[in-house]
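Protocol step 4 of 5: obtain the predicted structure for the target chain.
Materials: sequence only (see below). No template structures provided, no constraints applied. The aim of this step is simply to have a reference model before the mutagenesis design in step 5. Sequence pasted as it appears in the construct record:
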Amino acid sequence: MRIPLSWLAEYVDVAPGSTPEDVHAVLVKVGLEEEDIHRFDIAGPVVVGEVLDFVEEPQTNGKTIRWCQVRVAPDGEPAADGGEAVHGIVCGARNFFVGDKVVVTLPGSVLPGPFPIAARKTYGHVSDGMIASARELGLGDEHSGILRLVELGLDAPVGTDAISLLGLDDVSVEVNVTPDRGYALSIRGIAREYAHSTGAAFRDPAAQVQVADGDGFNVVIDDGAPIRGRIGADVFITRTVRGIDPSAPTPAWMIARLVLAGIRSISLIVDITNYVMLELGQPTHAYDLDKLTGGITVRRATPGEKITTLDGQVRALDPEDLLITDESGPIGLAGVMGGASTEVSAATTNVLVEAANFDPVSIARSARRHKLPSEASRRFERGVDPDVARAAAARVVQLLEQLGGGRADTLGSAHHTAVTVEPILLPHGYASELVGVEFTDDEVRTTLAEIGGAIEQTDAGLIVTPPSWRPDLTDKATLVEEVARIVGYDRIPSVLPVAPAGRGLTRDQQLRRQTANALAATGLTEVLVYPFLTQEQNDLFGSPNEQQVPAVRLTNPLDASAPFMRTSLLPGLIDTAKRNLSRGLTDLALFEVGLVFRPDGPVYGTEELPVGAALPTPEQLVRLEAGIPAQPRMVGALFTGESTQKQPGLTAVPSGIADALAAVRTLQNALGVTLEVRRGSHKALHPGRTAEVLLAGEHVGYAGELLPQVAVDADLPRVVAVLEVDLDAIIEAAGSELHVTPISSFPAATQDLSLVVDVDIPAADVLAAVVEGAGALLENARIVDDYRGSGVPDGSKSLTFALRFRAADRTLTASEASEAKLAGAARAAERIGAAVRE
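Step 4 output (structure tokens):
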């Protein structure tokens, strides 16, 4: 929210001499977040000038310029820049006339940009300054012609300071308003907060407007499908103004305030509705009365219905959308944007003013559904004061009369359904108990009365009825928050809490952290990826075969192209790698520890829950629990580029399946489990470079290289290694005891064993047979070579294993080690038909 300081000072006594930084500091004290300071960034001398004469001079480039004589100071007085009273100025615009009052930026001034102005030679003349357009002054986007004061309804003596005349010396402060404090999206709300912080006198702008209802205009609220039981529009006020001068300009002071507040000036009628919205926090809308057909009906959309909104877009409506309609059909998407069919134009003279209060949830859903956020929807979805609608409508009427020459008509309507605000019991001492600060009863009572609450003193405590503009005050804790905020957060001591014994990380949390630390220690970088995917991504990576994977589809996804929750971590890692590669990071080793979502039945999505103070019933909770999909925690990794870069003494080593298998060993060592790998298959992975990861014979994941075409389709190099395993399953098997292998003081005996087997037999099966046969003396076994060529029969391969033997109580003899090795070879021969290669 941007707050012009001159506007703020109308409704609260801002301390004299306050800087924007001072105002920021005051607002931060009551919980608003400081954002920025906005100025017009313009410096004088900028004055009112009068066009005395001009000569049009065609140029060789086809352009015609005007050589103008402009009076910039009264006769006999020097100009503000110290020069003559009459300046010669070259101007390319042609929308002004002799005798017009214009804005002249004299040499030495600086316009937004920054754009310094100096006397310079151009088109054969020395132009002593510039005649400014609205865009050059920062007052709008209009740049086709210069700014004539008559267009703003202004007249001032020649030489008058135009910066103050146009309100360009004002400044606005910007604060971030949290979603629960929608009342602060207005000058009214910010002025009240300033008063809370400083104790300055607050003057409610809504109380300064004379409210008068109209009647005779037919308005029907027909909401047959309210959301959460709340009717779509509980307040709907209309007023009529006739005889508006369509040529009446928006005054300069209003344009300046709107621009500082971040809103573009459009036309007087539209500017007034925006001005009142900023002032009171109540969005209003103006319809061209002559374009309306009959009365207004507020209803939900029907299937297949469409509307053309003010931005010219034709939008297909959802049955949940709340509409403003007349006899011709939809004329507005309630609380979001008006329709083009009843838009006010340069010819509009009669308007119908609307000020309504709509259901926040309905407006939020419509704005998000149509990707149409607006200043109005931003306020409605946070909650607008239902009691300010009458004042807002009256304020629009007042300004249309004062600035547009219109006259208020008695035609109108006043639909107002009383909204009951439930009182809240705040027990004595509860505020001090919750915050840890001793608040006196008087402090609590005075603070809650100051924010507008109605207070009743009882033996049990204070019964507080929150004001209509504070829908966020729903229970005693929120009341206490207000007490702490207004009295001052500086009263709350900074005390580091002491963690009670036995409440540290759980075993699973410790092991998950241990896993992440181990992977990071080996050079991988942890990433956090959005869990939203397409159905195609889930189908490709969520299952090893061609079947379609069941997935959770979001009802209202952030991105309509990716509406499913992930069933695998790999697509997110691939997207992350693609993004990093596009930024020049070619050597990547990434991992993520996160949940995947794998439903095996109906998923929650239709259960309607109570709102307000009511709690879900036990039956509802059971249905909700039953509908939650399985969410195993996985660990995924991706490797591409070079795992070892070229440097003196080292050659480059490209990333590949070896890196994924090394990550498997890292997990095994970090968690104290035994993970096996054997040849596997997966539709997204290379058929000859895919390993299935097993734990106690059960599948827990895959490691391998992406199919080259899958990698190329993702704009990645052809070789990309990946890993994904079920971390929950591994942690469950890890047990709670710490297993330590003692270091033997006896030497090891190492021998190699080469076995010839059929080429289709997995090396893992051969290794398992050797390990089983070699017995307890075998300490470690690993494959070191896979040879296929001369000396090996066709259709066979030679696998060489490095074996390490050790006894816990003695030094082994060579014959004992050889005997164990041969026992392993014998078992491999018996089980697989392996033959020892000589």
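Step 4 remarks: The domain at 749-836 is CATH 3.30.70.380 (Alpha-Beta Plaits). The chain has six domains: 2-40+170-203, 46-165, 215-416, 424-488, 508-605+618-734, 749-836.
Proceed to step 5.
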